[in-house]
Amino acid sequence: MTIAESYVEFGTREARGVSPTYERLSLASSRDEELLTLVETLPPAKRQPNLLFGVVRLLGGPVNDPTAFRDFTLANWPAIEAELRTRAVQTNEPGRCAVLLPVLAALPQPLALLEVGASAGLCLYPDRYAYRYGDHLLGTGEPVLDCALTGTAPPDRRPEVVWRAGLDLNPLRVTDPADVAWLDALVWPEHAHRRARLRAAAAVAAADPPLLARGDMVDDLPALAAQAPAGATLVVFHTSVLYQVPAPRRATFAEVVRGLPGHWIANETPDVMPHDALPEPPDDALYNVLALDGKPLAWTRSHGQAMTWFG
Ligand SMILES: C[S@@+](CC[C@H](N)C(=O)[O-])C[C@H]1O[C@@H](n2cnc3c(N)ncnc32)[C@H](O)[C@@H]1O
Prior knowledge:
Blueprint (H helix, E strand, L loop, with lengths): L2 H13 L4 H11 L2 H8 L8 H10 L7 H10 L1 H10 L10 H10 L4 E6 L13 E4 L2 E3 L5 E3 L1 E3 L10 E8 L8 H10 L5 H16 L3 E4 L6 H5 L7 E7 L7 H12 L4 E6 L18 E6 L2 E7 L4 E4 L2
Parallel strand pairs: 1-6, 1-8, 2-4, 5-12, 6-7, 8-9
Antiparallel strand pairs: 2-3, 9-10, 10-11, 11-12
Helix pairs in contact: 1-2, 4-8
C-alpha cells in the first residue's frame, strides 16, 4: 500500500462516520504530494495519519481546516518530525473494556489480568468502570462505557480482579502530565466523550496504579506472567496492538502465549490475527475480532462502541 493509499484507507475505513475532521484531513493529505514527500522521509512505522494528526494537535496546530493544517505542517516540519520520530500511537482507550467484559465476566473468578501493549494501563480496570449496553446498566460511577451489543446477552457482573499488570515497549504514566497530554492529543478531535472518559479512567488508575513493566510482548511476557498470584485465573489480553508488531513476531507471540497457563483474549483486526472462518462483518467499517484462546467470538468496533456476537 502506498502512503497515499494508507491515508485514503484511514479516512474511509477508520475515520468515516467516526471523525469527519480526520476523514477530511486524511483524504486531503492523500492528495497532497508535498506533504506526502515529507512523510515519506520517515520510517514506515512513523507515517500513520493518526500519529501525524496527533503530533500536530500536541503542538497546537489546526486540524479543522485541511489547508491550515497543511500550512502549519509544512512551516513547522522540523519540530513535527522530531516529535514523530520519538512518539508512537499509544492511544489508550478504556472504552475497549466494554467489549472485553462479556468474556472476562464468564471466566472463573478471581482474575489476574496481564495486558500486553498496555500503554498507560487504562484497560486494566474493567472491574472499576460502569457500563451501559443499551438500557442495561452495570456498575456505578465514572467513566460509563457505552457499547451497542448484539447477538448475546449483556454481562450481569463485573469481574473480580486481584492482580493487574501491563507490559509495553514504552509504558505511559497517568501520573505524568506530559504522558497525559500525549494521550489526550491522540483522542480524535470531535470525541469530547472519549476525552472525558480518558480523564475519568486516568483518575481511577492514578488512585491505584497498576504494575507497568517496560518490555517486549515476546521476550518479557513469561517472566511477568510468572509474577501472577496462584489461586487466580491468569488472563493475558491485548487490544489494538498487533498491527504495530511485525508478522514473524506476532506468530512467535501466539506460541508464547499459548504456552502460558490461564486464558488468552485477543481483540485485533483479522489482517494481523487471521482466523480460519469468520462471518461477514456488519458493514464496511474497520472491525476487530474478539477471540478467546484463539476462538473468534465477535466483531468489535475499535473504540469499544459496538460489538456483534457471532451466531
Ligand atoms: C494502540 S496502543 C493500544 C493500547 C491499549 N491496548 C488500548 O487498547 O488502549 C498499542 C500499544 O502497544 C505497544 N506495543 C507495540 N509493540 C509492542 C511490543 N512488541 N511489546 C509490547 N508492547 C508493544 C505500544 O507501545 C502501545 O502502547
